[in-house]
Structure formats: C-alpha cells, structure tokens
Amino acid sequence: MFFENITNIDFLVLGIAIAANLVLGVIVFFQDSKNVTNTLFFLQTVILSIWSVLNYLAYSITDLKIALWVIRLVMFFAVPNSIVFLFLMHTFPNRSFQMQRKAILTLITLGFIAMIVALSPLLFSEVKMVPGVITPQPVVGIGMIIFIPIAVLSIPLGIYFLVKRYLRAKNIEKLQLRHLLVGVIVMFSLILIFNFILPAFFENT
Question: Which of 5, 44, 102, 143 stands the most exposed, by the fewest C-beta atoms within 10 Å?
Fold first, then answer.
C-alpha cells in the first residue's frame, strides 16, 4: 500500500482548509487583478495549497521511492512559497512592487537554483525507515546549505519587513498591516503545531 497513514478526518480537514484558502485567494485576485498585492496573495494561496497537499502525502506514503519524490516536491514548492511570501510582506498593501527590480530578479534567480537543488540528490539523497518513526525519513545532503538561506530565511525576513512597516504606519494602513500580521502569526503557528510539534511529540501526523 502506498498510502497507509491517511485517515478520512485528516483528508476532510485538509480539503476544507485548501478549498477555503483557494476561494479567498480567487476573491481577492478578482477584486483587482492588476494590483500586485492581490496577485501575490493569490499566488501565495495556490502555492500554499499545493505545498499542503504534498506535505500531507509525505506523511502518508510508505513506499520509499514515491516518498522520496514527494518530499523533494514539498521542498521544491517551499521555495516559491517563501519567496512569494517575502514579496507579499514587502509590497502589501501597495498596488505595485516596492522592492528594487534588481533585488526581485536576484531573489527569483536564487529561488530557481534552490528549486533545482530541491529536486536533486543534493538535498535529499534517499529516504529510509527509522525504528519508532511511522513515516519515511529523508537523508539530508550538502544541498541543504544552499536551500536554507533561500527558502527558510525568506520567511523571517518577510516578517521583519512587515513588523517594520507596521511600526511606522499610521491610521488605515496600520490597521491593514495589523490584520495581516495577525493572520501571518496564526498561519505559521498552525503550520508549526500541525507539521512539527504534533508529529514530534505525539506521533500524530
């Protein structure tokens, strides 16, 4: 069996969350499709939905060859997810990019490099079963040195830009940034709880 750890409740909760996420993204996008903030938000919802499905499958698949490629795809989509998040935090609530073109192109180029690394044995060479752990565990390669600065550090950098702008903002803009900040904190808190804390301490995937 390829999928031995899937439960109906897990699948239902995931489906509802993804559907709500995508509906929200579509609504925001079509309110003003020429608005860069709206476009970035829509892209974020699409990428996050794909990443969530793959991440769920990574905990559910027991076939080692399939699990390896699913885990690689999880890391692959984690890169654009992080970079789009950084762009969104830096741009919101403006209609156009506030970041310099050179910086945007540099981040996109680095992102493509990290995505290629994510699909190669440089990041994860194989997966194996570990006693006491119900899901296949990846064997980390040297490519993690390239992956972490691009895919992982984009998240705290984006939060830094958001907090910095929130502290300087006034009136309506400050209220908008406050709502976004609360949403970001809730989102990453849930990701931390359901993808790291629960699996680590309660063996609940």
Answer: 102
